[in-house]
Amino acid sequence: MITKADIVDDIFIMQENGQKGSLTKKEIAAVVDGMLQAIRNQVAVGNAIQFRDYFTISPVLKKAKKAHDFKNGTTITMPRRPGVKIRASKGFEDYVKRVNNLG
Description:
- The protein is of the alpha+beta class.
- Helix content is 42%, strand content 28%.
- The chain has three helices and five strands; from the N terminus they run H-H-E-E-E-E-E-H.
- The strands form two sheets. A three-stranded antiparallel β-sheet has the order 1-2-5. Strands 3-4 form a two-stranded antiparallel ribbon.
- Helix 1 (4-16) packs across helix 2 (25-44).
């Protein structure tokens, strides 16, 4: 599993390999944090976020469903609840396949 710190390190290394005006790891971490908070806030209020050629993050309302309560041995209905759907773009999926020699 990759953590946010790993992503910050990757961005830091990429910018050192040929870009002018390098940012520090602390500055990169602040940008990544800000971006993730903005995404979370927008999805929470009902907006979908699209990173063209990468993925789309959408808020969804999950359906109510029946579940078994093992404690009481009864069937209960779980209410509708908010959730999040993340869908990769075709280009992103194709890239992953190419990198893994699957396509």
